[in-house]
Design goal:
Layout: H1 13-25, H2 37-40, E1 48-53, E2 58-62, E3 68-69, H3 74-86, H4 107-111, H5 122-136, H6 139-151, E4 157-158, H7 160-168, H8 171-182, H9 190-201, E5 203-205, H10 207-213, H11 215-218, H12 232-245, H13 251-257, E6 262-264, E7 269-274, E8 278-283, H14 294-307
Antiparallel strand pairs: 1-2, 1-8, 3-5, 4-5, 6-7, 7-8
The structure holds glutamine (GLN).
């Protein structure tokens, strides 16, 4: 029998260098999100990737220390923070099925009585942030403190211009929030919730920061300082929802290509988790038509193919 060795016993640097070189040679990067000027101005040729081991050792390539707009990646963290506080009661207010619809879609909400399909489409994330707001009275502040602690980077912050721009172009998110409020599925005044949500989306962080910050999902719920945030079972649940719902209506294709729980954002970042082994974050601002980074998905696809590290 041939025993296969993978990158798991080595530094990840050679595999990252190889992926960066392949990405560099690949034409076609998609288009940056253009619904707000701050994102539209990003250069689609930028590319960075980081891998963090469970002990906090982090490897990277390209623009891996460059802060970018985290956007929907933050939905994983607010979900974890709210689950840690309220447990299963959350699932009475948001489902955990793939939506098969774009991340900002309104159509399913009416058929399903104001209960969003999952926490990673905008409607579901608004419900989660609303519930975290009720419990913490500063949902985005709690998120930022958590990201700073887990990444070890106290300089992480909101981008006030992005938050203001989100707000100025926020009609669809406002519509989602008001619609759910009409079903009694939002506790806080909608303007308060939207302010929290737009601040949440505006957090700037690098691939290194995010690969470290998501480490608790690879450590089965344990934070960087050894404290437990989630039970082992809850960490499994969050990973499962990421796998099935983390890349919007492309989650099936992402699972097929990458084989890892992952969450994307329209800033061009994607985080991914190899439970028990390591975490990844990749950033490249050019998106496909479903809102996922073209080079980001390609890089993760190559990573799991080259290393054999996937959940399957
Ligand atoms: N701020 C964006 C929005 O709410 C986040 C969407 C995303 O990253 N998919 O529309």
């Amino acid at each position: 029998m041939v025993i296969m060795t993978t990158a798991s016993s080595h530094s990840f640097e050679p595999v990252l260098a190889r992926i960066a070189e392949e990405i560099e040679r690949t034409p076609g990067r998609g288009r940056p999100a253009d619904y707000i000027p701050a994102l539209a101005a990003c250069d689609p040729r930028r590319f960075g990737m980081a891998v963090a081991e469970l002990d906090g050792t982090v490897y990277g390539v390209g623009d891996w220390r460059e802060p970018f707009s985290t956007q929907s990646i933050t939905k994983v963290f607010t979900l974890a923070l709210d689950l840690a506080r309220e447990g299963d009661a959350l699932w009475e207010h948001v489902g955990r099925e793939p939506s098969g619809n774009p991340f900002n879609s309104l159509v399913q909400l009416e058929y399903e009585n104001g209960i969003p399909r999952n926490p990673f489409i905008n409607a579901g994330a608004l419900v989660v942030t609303d519930r975290l707001q009720t419990r913490s009275s500063d949902a985005s502040g709690e998120l930022l403190a958590f990201l700073r602690a887990e990444s070890g980077n106290p300089a992480l912050d909101f981008d006030q211009d992005v938050a203001a721009s989100e707000s100025a172009h926020g009609d669809r998110n406002a519509a989602l929030a008001h619609f759910m409020a009409s079903y009694g599925n939002i506790d806080n005044p909608v303007p308060v919730l939207l302010d929290q949500y737009f601040r949440q989306c505006s957090v700037m962080a690098s691939c290194a920061d995010l690969a470290l910050a998501i480490g608790f999902l690879a450590r089965h719920g344990i934070r960087a300082d050894g404290d437990r945030l989630l039970s082992q079972s809850q960490a499994k649940q969050v990973n499962a929802v990421m796998l099935t719902c983390g890349t919007y209506d492309a989650a099936g294709d992402f699972a097929y290509r990458v084989g890892l729980p992952g969450k994307s954002g329209v800033g061009g970042g994607i985080i991914a988790v190899v439970p028990g082994r390591c975490t990844l974050c990749v950033w490249s601002p050019g998106l496909d038509e479903r809102g996922n980074s073209v080079a980001g998905v390609a890089a993760l696809d190559r990573f799991t193919t080259l290393t054999g590290l996937s959940v399957f």
